[in-house]
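FORM 7B: Structural annotation worksheet

SECTION A. Query
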Amino acid sequence: MPDVQRMKSKVALIGEGSVGKTSLIRRFVRDEYDDKYIHTVGTKVTKLELTVPHGPTGEVEVDLAIFDIMGQKGFKDMVKETFFFGCQGLLAVCDVTRRDTLHAVHDWMSAATNVAGDVPAFLLVNKMDLAERQRDVPDSEIEKVAGTWEMPIAHTSAKTGAGVDDAFNSLAIAIVEAAFRNVAEHAVEHDLRHKVLLLVSQKGQYGVSKAEFFEALHGVSYNDLEKEITKLEREALIQVNWRGPADFTVLITPLGERATEGR
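SECTION B. Predicted structure
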């Protein structure tokens, strides 16, 4: 049996009005399309569950909340703090028949990432069913915008369904992978913190020199060690005595001693 884990995730579709955000969500969630333009008033949330494979035998059940935002000018600035807060993924949508909607992606991504941070994002070039007759966006400009924000490109059509499932599913996979990477990085940081405190505590009044740190902590980079020592000093758990621009001795503080008691 597969090892099944669960997680909740918030995804936001961003872009100008009438690029097809609502229709893309409807196509992905219900496999439906409506020719009538649906004007999004404020924000709408659609929820569904996805099963994402992870590792050779694992699966992650993702409770996905998809946020659809009105594309009118100025609206993103009114709601950006609440709308983008906690987003774990972004789908930036442009209309292949309107060049201005591609250029507007820069403003949308700037507003979104200023709140959500560096999260997985894809650029969806929508309405590809109209590309042969009405295309207004050259590939070179699409690649330039996507490259600026380090986004993979997906060509989609909410009308025909082409590329829609792949775009949403690829984002879900990227979100799961990012979540597991974050867990692993935090585990490494916690482990280094514990080792530094324990080593300094054991040395007591003699302190630990830079050379002794690297003898005891195999494989740790200078940047990672310096970053961890800086954080511990800021918390008053250690005292750093610099003996030059890149040489130091670290001593435990009374607060640091109490933090290591019982370890």
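SECTION C. Observations
DSSP finds ten helices and nine strands in the chain. The two ends are 37 Å apart (CA to CA).

SECTION D. Sign-off
Analyst initials: ____
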